[in-house]
Specification:
20% of the residues lie in helices and 32% in strands. It is of the alpha+beta class. The protein has an eleven-stranded mixed β-sheet with strand order 7-1-2-6-3-8-9-12-13-14-15, sandwiched between helices. Strands 16, 17, 18, 19, 20, 21, 24, 25, 26, 27 and 28 form an eleven-stranded mixed β-sheet that branches. The longest helix is centred in the N-terminal third of the chain and has 17 residues. The radius of gyration is 27 Å and the shape is globular.
Length: 628
């Protein structure tokens, strides 16, 4: 036979090659690849996603039944990558709230079909990210919903509940198809790269798991998270709530866990005495001390008026991560305990998408080079900073002095003369709002010290302290110190039920959806109020912990004691024309519990001072605060 060169339809070939290259460009990148630009797109089917449940062995026996506890793990992942031989990364939210309380602004819970397969995943993560090539994994903490074990409120069981899942996703753990018995199941579809996200307790678990240094945890996104459980219940010995972790455990535990976890409940009671002393229970639940083990990047989000998880939590966690060189980003809003999906929705989804694409899929999208901090200055008005705390911020000492009216003093660079005093009588019925509203009046429950009207804006960025020398009239005493911006402002109404937002009836959809999980959520708007002052940083302490933050003791009436109160982290600009105020008082009603007595406290002003994180340091402060 005669052979020769066959005829080649060049135009058809060019078209075919072009289409093939285009397909490669738009196809999702296999996990582990590092695309140079772009972002993951919604190319996979949400309706055809695999929805499954497994039970991961925690290697603990918290409920003492002689068998290792298994935690329920609900998984939604696109079906196509596995068929194509691709492994994918994981977005994980480990929570105690999936059956008792729900997640998000609409308190969504997990739902299941008649066979027990997952139907609804709370929040938008599955709707948005599953079509983009991610698996979304929701973990019931031990003792909650469909998991074995007991809730230990941030302790070993809580943290291991989630860490064991990260291990399993990386081939280091065991899982089964059922809560008891069942067949072993491997996460062969996972590439091991895991990002944890969540708000409140969920965020706390992310912090705690990151502090173990577990391999495979690439990033965490803690929203309003606790960094040390002692600081959730106490402020240097002053009790913040009238209950302990045992009550919190009882609220979230499944009925089965409540029947079998009496021993764990007793440990929570015995290990958390209401006297404010530091115990081994608190050491176990202090993640800040292990910040040096963190391998994951951290995108931290917090409301600067969060009076549930107070802002000390993000401040001390952020500072510890910074000391160890952890890659970080931060958003600070004017809200209370609110998810950014409910106050900056479109920007949040876009930024979170970039963050996960970079740290879990390897996209070079520049998110790690973007400004480190986004800060809400007024409702829905944001500024950015290349670093946080703001560049040029330094610790500046300001001193309180008496003015012409007793109880109405001056705040500035000049120290008070030796022997100068001021006094307050603890009134547990009064709060920081009562004090601030009467700052220029002599009232027995507080003393206030103010600058004159500022001649230039003054920015506070970070955490400060107030050192107080006080002589009590009784054997117990609590102290409060608050910073106030005195001047008119439009603020989010963080004290209202929505903590700075109102929920509307209209819905918008974020990602794909179906009948069982629409991916559509109620819109929100800023809840705004006009105010004559803004309390923007707070600190509390029990004076009996003056010598040892971990051990209180009775006070000797008539004897002076010196203690330093930690002012919670913030970022606030006091505008020109406004005044900066420091208020010192006793019990801050609604925020700390009162002491056993209602003492009169005499302050030694010459030994009392505020050390504040002021941008521009001493020169900027001297320029802004007028000399009296």
């Amino acid at each position: 036979m005669r052979t020769g060169i066959p005829h080649i339809p060049w135009k058809s070939l060019v078209v075919a090659i072009t289409l093939a290259l285009f397909a490669l460009l738009i196809a999702p990148h296999p996990a582990g690849a590092a695309p140079s630009s772009g972002e993951s797109g919604p190319v996979y089917s949400y309706d055809h996603a695999i929805r499954e449940s497994v039970w991961v062995d925690t290697r603990l026996d918290g409920d003492g039944d002689g068998h290792a506890d298994r935690v329920a793990v609900d998984i939604m992942r696109p079906s196509e990558p596995a068929r194509q031989g691709h492994r994918i990364p994981v977005i994980m939210d480990a929570s105690p709230y999936y059956s008792c309380c729900g997640r998000g602004n609409e308190s969504q819970k997990k739902t299941y079909d008649a066979q027990g397969r997952p139907v609804q995943f709370p929040l938008f993560y599955d709707n948005y990210f599953v079509p983009r090539g991610y698996a979304v994994v929701l973990v019931d903490l031990a003792g909650t919903n469909r998991s074995d074990g007991c809730v230990d409120v941030g302790g070993r069981s809580d943290i291991q509940s989630a860490k064991a899942v990260v291990d399993w996703l990386n081939g280091r753990g065991r899982a089964y198809t059922a809560r008891t018995g069942g067949k072993p199941v491997a996460a062969g579809w996972s590439n091991g790269s895991t990002g944890m996200i969540g708000k409140s307790w969920d965020a706390t678990i992310a912090n705690g798991v990151a502090a173990t240094g577990v391999p495979g945890l690439k990033t965490i996104v803690p929203i309003s998270g606790i960094s040390s459980w002692y600081d959730y219940y106490f402020a240097k010995g002053a009790p913040l709530y009238n209950s302990g972790p045992d009550q919190l455990a009882h609220e979230v535990e499944s009925p089965g866990a409540q029947q079998h976890c009496a021993a764990v409940q007793k440990k929570l009671v015995d290990g958390a005495p209401r006297n404010g002393d530091w115990t081994g229970l608190w050491t176990e639940r202090d993640y800040v001390r292990n910040a040096g083990k963190v391998r994951a990047s951290v995108f931290l989000v917090h409301g600067m008026q969060d009076l549930n998880v107070r802002t000390k939590h993000f401040g001390q966690w952020w500072d510890a991560l910074a000391r160890h060189g952890v890659q970080r980003k931060i958003w600070l809003s004017q809200t209370g305990h609110v998810d950014p999906f409910d106050y900056r929705r479109a920007d949040w989804v876009h930024t979170l998408h970039q963050w996960f694409d970079h740290y879990l899929m390897g996209y070079d999208n520049g998110i790690e080079r973007a400004p480190m901090a986004d800060i809400e200055r007024a409702p829905d008005t944001w500024s950015t900073d290349a670093r946080w705390p703001a560049a040029g911020t330094a610790s500046v000492v300001l001193h309180p002095r008496n003015g012409t009216t007793a109880g109405v003093g001056v705040l500035g660079a000049q120290p008070a003369p030796k022997g100068a005093t001021a006094s307050v009588t603890d009134d547990p019925k009064q709060s920081e709002t009562d004090w601030a509203a009467h700052i220029d009046q002599a009232t027995p429950a507080k003393v206030g010290f103010t600058t004159g009207p500022l001649t230039a804006p003054l920015r506070l960025s970070g955490s400060g302290t107030v050192t107080v020398t006080a002589t009590p009239s009784t054997s117990s005493a609590h102290l409060s110190a608050v910073l106030v911006d005195l001047g008119p402002a439009t603020l989010r109404n963080y004290a209202a039920d929505g903590e700075g937002i109102v929920t509307l009836d209209k819905r918008t959809c974020w990602g794909a959806g179906n009948k069982g999980d629409t991916g559509c959520f109620k819109e929100t708007a800023a809840d705004v109020e006009k105010a004559g002052y803004t309390v923007f940083s707070r600190g509390w302490a029990d004076l009996g912990h003056w010598a040892d933050p971990g051990k209180g003791r009775p006070l000797t009436p008539g004897k002076p004691y010196t203690i330093t109160l930690d002012l919670a982290a913030t970022d606030h600009i006091v505008p020109a024309g406004h005044r900066l105020a420091l208020i010192v008082a006793g019990t801050d009603a609604g925020l700390i519990d009162p002491p056993a007595s209602h003492p009169r406290l005499t302050l030694d002003l010459s030994r009392t001072a505020a050390r504040l994180p002021l941008t521009g340091g001493v020169p900027a402060t001297a320029h802004a605060i007028p000399t009296p």
